[in-house]
Design goal:
With 71 residues, this protein is an all-alpha fold. Helix content is 65%, strand content 0%. The longest helix has 20 residues. It is elongated, with a radius of gyration of 13 Å. The model has no long low-confidence stretch (mean pLDDT 81).
Length: 71
């Protein structure tokens, strides 16, 4: 179910960017959780400088990871 939510939210996000409009409101908690996971995946991808697969394997906050890596 989570993978399907991720795909739906990703398609909505891409459509919103391509059509210069707001993203539709997530109708369920699962959809909202999928959206947050994708946002966190963007930051994790930047931190690791690589592609990230969904669902995320690393469930830690990428900002906390950055801080711990900086010393």
């Amino acid at each position: 179910h989570m993978a399907m939510c991720n795909e739906i939210i990703a398609r909505q996000l891409i459509s919103a960017i391509e059509n210069d409009r707001d993203v539709e409101i997530a109708p369920t908690g699962a959809d909202a959780r999928a959206a947050v996971e994708m946002i966190m995946a963007i930051f994790e991808s930047h931190r690791r400088k690589s592609r990230i697969e969904l669902p995320l394997k690393n469930r830690e906050n990428p900002f906390a990871e950055w801080n711990s890596e900086r010393g």
